[in-house]
Each structure stands twice: as structure tokens, then as C-alpha cells.
Amino acid sequence: MAAPVKRTCEDSSDISSKLSTGCKDEKKLETFLTWSKENNLWISPKVCVTKEGSCAQYGMLTTEKVDSGECLFKVPRKLLLHPKTSAISRLLKKEAAALTSDSGWVPLLLALMYEYNNPESTWRPYLDLVPDFRELDLPMFWPENERESLLGTANGILKCVESDIKSLTAEFNTIVLPFVQKHSDVLSPACESLDLYKKMVAFVMAYSFTEPAPDEDQAKEDVPTKSAPMMVPMADILNHVAHNNAELRFEKEFLKMVSTAEIAKGAEVFNTYGMLSNKDELHMYGFSERYPNNDKDTVDIPAAVLKSMAGDLEANQTDKTLLDEKWEFLMEQVRIILFMLSFLLLLIILGLF
User: Fold this and answer.
1) pLDDT in tens, 289-343
2) N or C: fewer beta carbons within 10 Å in the chain?
3) Contact between 281 and 297 (Cβ < 8 Å)
4) Dihedral sign, Cα of residue 64, residue 65, residue 67, residue 72
5) 3-class DSSP state of 209
């Protein structure tokens, strides 16, 4: 799920079934791989899932050289975990209007909580293997004094995390908890836990995939349109680096992980989560990449600093009124650009672009 650098996690999770402990881990992996095979999740003999040699947690390594363009595994759509495949899909569909939220994640999170607490879940071997909440180390799980250490070096992350916690808490109290209590005959008392909900949010944030909108040709083939996040067994085991060597491709019946470069024997297979800065990686996945490996990294410069610098440069060339007018013009152009980007993103999400 992640690449270095990761913090050392000291969390003594109360969900003992998720702790990574020696032979238990090996047994869970063996059970997961057996479940995968029984459900037609094909894995190339050229790769294996292991913690040995992986950069972080579980990963996928090659057992022999892989050429570019090779399929490493394919996941049948019936194994994707989302609201429409969950055992409570009918209930979620019936109550859809009551589950509307800003995040749009509530149906998936409820499906995950139900399946996670259901011993007979179709996805039991998958959920027993991932997530290992002891190793899922996003900043939202850090003690408050540790999060405050981000001030000055990654202030944007601190604001994002605080916003995440505030939003998910409000979402849980106003939408999720009332739903769980209303349907206590279906959802177990464990689903009334804000702590569990917070972990499910982190699980979705760090492990989920979102299907891209199809182009016109794909639409004619009845390929599903862009969806909310979904969990993809096996695909979420791959770790991320900026310079990945594999990518997930969505097809009508299967999702395929395909190599995008030659991969040497014994090397790790890396997927990509997108063009992410280290700030985004730390915020959403709980890791960052050592310099200079992540050439997608960015630096945030507060607008106030730019204005101050502009004032210093033009101190002897213009008066303050002209500088303020220039600054306001620049900020207006920025607002227009941000609005256009937001509108374009909305069109993409709706599948209209």
C-alpha cells in the first residue's frame, strides 16, 4: 500500500485479528491466496505476494524477469467490494437518500463495516489480511502533539487532517450512527464505534480505487461509468512510488495489473496512486518518498509571502496603491483558474468530459 519513509507505529490496536504476528500472517496470506484462486483471481507465476523484500507491509515481487506489457494478475469484478456487491446492497440502495454526504463515501463505509464485522463475509480472507490497522499510520491517527509537529514544515497537512477528522466525525454522528441504530437487526453494535468508522475512512483513503470514466468507445461496450471508490483485492497490496512499473487497467469483466516497464527478477512491482507530492502521500497514505525519488513533489508558498516579496522588489519602483492593484488582479486570475479547474473536475466526475 505504501513506500518509505514510514513512521514507527506504536499503536496497540484493540482489533487483535489484524495484528501482524509471524505465523498468523503466513496463515492469513495462505488463506487469502487460496480464496483468490477459488474465486478466479488469476496471478502470474512470475510474481508473488510477500512481506520479505517489500518496501512496506505486503508487496508484490517478481520470481523471474517480467517484460513490459505483461499481465501480472486479473481480478474478476465480482470480487470488487463496494455498495452494490456487499451483502447489504439492497438496504443501502433503499436508504440511499438518507446516506447522502459531502464525501460520497458513506455507502461504501457502511458496506465495509458490515463485511468487516461479518464472520461469514465473502471477503473474510481479504479483510483478515488487509488492512492491518496497526500499520495503517496516517496522520489522522497520530496523537495531537505529534500532528502539531507538522506546523511550519507541512502546515497544509495539519489543516487537511483537522478538516478530515471534523468532517468524518460530523458525518458519523449525523448520518452513520442513526442508520446503524435504525438497522441494529442487520448491523452489529461494533458498527456504532466512531473509532472503527475512522479506521474505515483511512482504509478507503489509503487502499481504494476509483474507476475512470469510459471514453465513447468503451461506453458503447457497456463498461460501467465512473463510480465511487471501491476496494480491489490484490491490487491494493502493491506499493506506490513516483516511478511505477505497473498500472491497473479497468476492463469489462476483469481489472488487470499490467507491467509498464521491464522488471528484473526479484524486484518489487510498484503501482501508482497518481502524481502526488510528498504532502499528499503523507496525508492520504501515511508515507513519503526520500528525496530525490519523488520528482512530483511540490512546495507550498503562502500568498502573503509572495506579496511581501513583491513589495520588497518594487519598493523603489512603484507606490503601495499600484502594488495592491496588481496583487488584486493576480488573485482574481487565480480565482478564475481555480473555478475553471473545479468545473472541469466536476465534469470529469460526472462523466461529461
Assistant:
1) 666 666 665 666 666 666 676 666 555 555 667 777 777 887 888 888 878 877 7
2) C
3) no
4) positive
5) strand
